[in-house]
Specification:
The protein has five helices and 17 strands. By secondary structure, it is an alpha+beta fold. The strands form two sheets. Strands 1-2-3-4-5-6-7-8 form an eight-stranded antiparallel barrel. It is elongated and about 65 Å long. The N terminus is likely disordered.
Length: about 280
């Protein structure tokens, strides 16, 4: 009897290995063997993951994840008033989400699971995004702006006015950040200043983290969806400013802190990064 069972097992072995190989291919998507960019038909786990998600653990810093049925995807996050994100292609097994970023081909593998009505990806709790996107606002101030503050760079930093500029972002959650920089050396010669802001009765008040700059008060200004200009009072010094709306500014070179080093993937890096004011080059004097 043992010999018969042994012979049956030997006969079935090639079929078992073949089935296991086919199963592996299926779970990773046809044409994707776990290397390179994910491709091919979605497996059962990937079909379940397709959707748009948003984090619900910290309304002031929402995190968005989109996994499309054509294997395209994206993430974005609002942190310290700055928005950052990337596009990628993706694939999944029963417990691992793999993304390959379009910007540089970097590959991330993150664990995921379902619990308590949430999808947890790399420890980030997500729920289905129903369209009520945290941070959406009709306020034209919310967004990214770039331009100049006349006389400000000489008064605050002792620098020549013609080589300096400013980009800033106002987030709907009342946070924001400002980058004053040398237009010819923006990654080595700059002042990065996170802030909080309020707007009431025609007055915008900006308070900088760690008092990196004096409090700024905007009272005489014109604001539209494309232009923001007028006068701003820093302490007792009044400056004229003129900004135009912009988008897509990459804040990542200026975000520092222990959260970045501790994060194992780009998603968690962005989620954990918290940065204070940074001064570099001529702006550090």
């Amino acid at each position: 009897m043992r010999k018969i069972l042994a012979m049956i097992m030997l006969a079935l072995a090639p079929l078992c290995f073949s089935a296991c190989d086919d199963d592996d291919d299926y779970y990773y998507g046809h044409g994707w063997q776990g290397g390179g960019a994910p491709s091919g038909e979605l497996n059962q786990y990937e079909r379940d993951l397709v959707g748009s998600y948003v984090s619900d653990d910290d309304p002031s810093n929402p995190f968005y994840l989109v996994l499309n049925s054509d294997r395209s995807g994206s993430y974005s996050s609002v942190s310290d008033g700055t928005t950052k994100g990337e596009d990628f292609t993706w694939g999944a097994t029963s417990n691992t989400l793999t993304v390959v970023y379009k910007s540089d081909g970097y590959r991330d593998e993150m664990g995921y699971y379902y619990a308590d009505g949430h999808l947890y990806v790399d420890g980030i709790p997500l729920v289905v995004n129903t369209g009520q996107v945290p941070g959406d606002s009709d306020n034209p101030l919310v967004g990214q702006w770039e331009g100049k503050i006349n006389g400000f760079y000489a008064a605050m930093y002792g620098l020549a006015e013609d080589s300096c500029a400013t980009v800033c972002e106002f987030a709907a959650n009342g946070e924001g950040t400002q980058l004053d920089y040398n237009t010819y050396k923006p990654k080595t010669d700059y002042a990065y200043s996170p802030f909080t802001w309020t707007q009431a009765d025609g007055v915008i008040v900006v308070t900088y983290v760690d008092n990196a700059l004096p409090r700024a008060v905007f009272t005489d200004y014109a604001l539209s969806s494309t232009r923001f200009s007028g006068s701003v009072l820093y302490d007792k010094q009044l400056f004229g400013f003129a900004y135009t709306a912009t988008s897509g500014f990459d804040w990542s070179p200026y975000i520092t802190g222990s959260g970045v080093a501790a994060a194992k993937t780009r998603l968690s890096e962005l989620r954990r990064a918290k940065s204070g004011p940074v001064r570099s080059g001529g702006f550090a004097r």
